[in-house]
Amino acid sequence: MTAYSTAPRRPAPKAALSNIITVASGKGGVGKTWLAVTLAHALARAGYRALLFDGDLGLANVDIQLGLAPERDLGSVIAGRLKLRDAVTRFGDGGFDLIAGRSGSGNLSALHPSRLTTLRDDLIGVAETYDHVLVDLGAGLEQAVRLLTINSSRCLVVCTDEPTALTDAYAFIKIMRLERPSVDLRIVINMATSRADGERTYATLRKVCENFLHLTPPLAGIVRRDKRVKDAIRNQIAMLVRYPTSLAATDVEDLADMLAREH
């Protein structure tokens, strides 16, 4: 377990895209948003300056999971009342920053491609002041998801052992391979009964990708099933605050450590 640092590192400037990690899934219900929140928290605990961007336009719920009620969100940015960097909210308990979405705003998920592209470019600009930026994408393959999957960044595709999750994860990888060939796609198996079961689930998805796409997306990590996750979400308390030594929390911290060491 990495000790919490109250003094975030101030490393030398780096390429704007290399510090952005998108978190995606082919379908909902695989724990994508929880993983993005906990991963941002883990990076902050390790002493990095981290930002979490809620890019699930229209069904945003990062703030709900954390029990926050931000005064500023993406709705104000898209309406032209705020610049993106002015919509940043500090999550003090986790030591990281957040740009919240607006839950239930269907108009956000139907933005014109040019506006989405501007939003993406603004995010790249904001990312320059952080060590790591986590982007929680919407589930599925909607236009907003594809446009916010930033070229040259790392993309964690979250999947479980459910057949529909595997099928939809493969579909996401296929489309991204066609539209964003430079994106570094990696697999995270969530809610695995054990590490061995997680390895088997990954092997199933890898085999399909190899057979039909001639692609071998690497395994980024396995997060074991942990009943404490539901309790933390239900109580709107960050996992690393409520259960910092739990199985799932430890697995996410291992993933954060791996991603940070690569960068």
Features:
single chain, 263 residues, Rossmann fold, 11 helices, 8 strands, 17% strand, globular, disordered N terminus
Protein architecture, described:
This protein is of the alpha/beta class. It has a single domain (20-262), classed as P-loop containing nucleotide triphosphate hydrolases (Rossmann fold), CATH 3.40.50.300. 43% of the residues lie in helices and 17% in strands. It has 11 helices and 8 strands. The chain has an 8-stranded mixed beta sheet with strand order 3-4-2-5-1-6-7-8, sandwiched between helices. Helix 7 links the parallel strand 6 (154-159) and strand 7 (184-192). Helix 1 (32-45) crosses helix 11 (247-262). The longest helix is centred in the C-terminal third of the chain and has 19 residues, at 195-213. It is globular. The protein starts with 19 loop residues before the first strand and ends with a helix. Mean pLDDT is 88; it is low at 1-15.
Task: Outline the secondary-structure elements.
Elements: E1 20-24, H1 32-45, E2 50-55, H2 62-66, H3 74-78, E3 88-91, E4 96-99, H4 106-109, H5 113-127, E5 132-137, H6 143-148, E6 154-159, H7 163-179, E7 184-192, H8 195-213, E8 219-224, H9 227-234, H10 239-242, H11 247-262
Parallel strand pairs: 1-5, 1-6, 2-4, 2-5, 6-7, 7-8
Antiparallel strand pairs: 3-4
Helix pairs in contact: 1-11, 7-8
